[in-house]
Amino acid sequence: MRKLSHMIIELSLATTFLAGLTIVLGGIVEGYGYGLSLGTKWPYTRDMVHLAVRKADPEAMHRISATLVGLLSLTILILDFNLLSIAGFISVIFTALLGMATLYVLAGKLPSIFQGFHDIAAYTTMVIYLLIAMGFDPSRFTSFIIDAITPPHFLYFVIFMGGVVTGTRKMRFSIGDVRKPKNRLQWIWIVHSIAGVIFFLSLILLQLWIPLALALIEGIVGLLVFRGINRNPEKPGIVVGLHQLFSIAIVLSLVIFSI
C-alpha cells in the first residue's frame, strides 16, 4: 500500500462516493422514466441546476454528479500522476462518451451493447478511485483488472448484460413471460439471470460469504425489478435504484476482500 496525503485520500473517497451516487441516480432515472427528459444532447448545461433542485429531475442530478466526478478526476490526475490516476481519468472519459451513447440507445439510434459498456465503465471508475483512496499499488493494477474479468469472476459480465437489458427495452418495454422466451429482450434477460447464478456459484467457490449474502439480496431485488418492469415498464419505481445500490455494495465488498 502507498502512503498518500490526506488531500488525495479525501478527494479519492469523494470521487468514489460521487461515482456510486451517479450510478444510483442512473437507476432512479430508469425507475421513474426520466431517460430522455433532457433529450439526446450531452452534457446539456442550460437550467441544469434549476431542473435538479426545483424540479427534482434525476437525469439532471445524474449529469451534475457525473460532471463533478470528471472535475475531481482531473484534480487527482494533476496532484497524483500515476498509472491508477491515468486509468481513472480515462475511465471517466469513456463513461462520459458511453453515457452520451446511451441516450442514442434509448432513442433507438445505437445498439444496446453501448448501454452495457457504459455500465462497465461507470463501475470501473468507482473501483479505481476506491483503490486510489486505499493506497493500492499502481503497479498491481493490471493484474487486478485481469483477475476481476477472468473466470470464476463473472460480475463484470452480469453488469454488462444488465446494461444490455436496459438498452434493449429502452426504458419503455416490458420484459414479459420469460418461461417461454419469444423475443430478443427475453433471451437477453435470461442470459443476464444465468450469469447472475454463475456469479453466485463463483462466490461460493471462492468462499466470499459477505459478497454472497449481498448478491442473494441483489437477486431478490432483481426479481422485484423484473416484476416492476412488467407492471409498469416506463416507471418500475425505486427498486431499479436499489438494484444498482446493492450492485455497488457487492463491488465494494469484493474490492475490499481482494486486497
TrEMBL record:
This is Conserved membrane protein. The chain crosses the membrane at residues 86-107, 113-132, 144-165, 185-205, 212-230, 236-257. Keywords: Membrane, Transmembrane, Transmembrane helix. The keyword Ubl conjugation does not apply. Signal peptide: none annotated. The keyword RNA-binding does not apply. It comes from the Archaea. It comes from Sulfolobus acidocaldarius (strain ATCC 33909 / DSM 639 / JCM 8929 / NBRC 15157 / NCIMB 11770).
